[in-house]
Amino acid sequence: MSLKGLELQIAIPKTFEAGKMADQRQQNTILQQMHANEALNRELERKQLSVNETEHLNALNDEEQDKPSQNGQEQTQENKKNKEQLEQKVQHPFKGNLFDFSG
Description:
By secondary structure, the protein is mainly alpha-helical. The chain has helices at residues 5-66, 72-89. The N and C termini lie far apart (86 Å). This is RNA polymerase subunit sigma.
């Protein structure tokens, strides 16, 4: 297949345009991958920090529980009584109830 002069005038610029478009497409794909990677890294860092924050709060709660209060023994006894009363009041959803499975 031979190309004539007139055909070459049209074909050569088209190949440059096609090459530019392919290069732009490739660069666009690379940029999208970089942005996705950055977003993933930000998300991982956010999750890691949120876990550390909750552990920090749990440590604070443990310290508060370890500190004796002014009326330490009286309050702990009252707290235990209150917890026991709440546990007694709460009924299990199906324990102690009769179910008839005969069919």
